[in-house]
Amino acid sequence: MCVVDKTLKIKDFVFGDGTPRICVPLIGRTGEEIFSAAKVIRKEIDRLEALHPDRPDLKVAVIEWRADYYSNVTLAENVYNILRHLRQLFPDRILLFSFRSEEQGGEFRNDRALLRMEDIMRNVMSSGLVDMVDVEYTAGNYNIAKATTKAHESGIKVIISYHDFEKTPHDSEIEEKLRQMEILGGDILKIAAMPTTSFDTRRIMELNQKMVIERAKPVVLIAMGELGTQSRIKGKETGACLTFATMGERSAPGQISVERLMSML
């Protein structure tokens, strides 16, 4: 019988092996703000990891540049220069490029995002400076398939993501979205939803356990907000391949600091 390997390895980090890898968002509206925040993150990563030298599972694996905050994100040369700087600062980490539309919790107006997304992503993928890109599920099947194909041709892995900031969808709806994400070429399948009760959080966590078995790609289901904190720190129990924590400004409701996350893990 053929055994399917459901893990994904990038650099020294494996996703889907039972250890939730830590991702830290990097946010800034100008190049100066981005560079300043990146230096702080680098220094803090080194400090915290020195406190846990025997715990490789606590290492920050992913630096996520939330480029939708950057005011000049449509200027290819500016974006390239920032990516080059980040690559030099974080050579030992996975660099994730995310460009979030307003609809999905980002800073870029929906109509502008649709017009600019393809050009921005094409420039980023051709730069050779990123390891992963985030593609929004709401972009539509055709655009997602184009993006994942281009990324894979460039040796870049893809997170396909979906965010619901109002509610937690029914299990069947989440399962169907994950199935479509996998068909469309996602290497990591991510859904974040807003719980209205603690039951929603438990439901998300139990569904993550189920989806780890049923899907062939690493999965992360997140319950956002204060009610969802347990979903961020119980990844080993649920099988979530990623967890997001902050060193500065939050990029989603309910994110906790890396220092607090490490202590809770």
Number of helices: 9
Question: Which class of secondary structure composition applies to the elements?
Answer: alpha/beta
Strand composition percent: 15-25%
Number of strands: 11
Please describe the biggest sheet, giving its number of strands, its sense, and whether it closes into a barrel.
Answer: 9 strands, parallel
From the alpha-carbon coordinates, what is the Rg to the nearest angstrom?
A: 17 Å
Please give the alpha-carbon distance between the first and last residues. 36 Å
Mean pLDDT, rounded to whole units? 91
Uncertain regions spanning at least 5 consecutive residues = none
Instruction: Bin the helical content.
Output: 40-55%
**Overall morphology:** globular
* Major sheet: arrangement of strands: 9-8-7-6-5-4-3-10-11
N to C succession of SSEs: EEEHEHEHEHEHEHEHHEEH
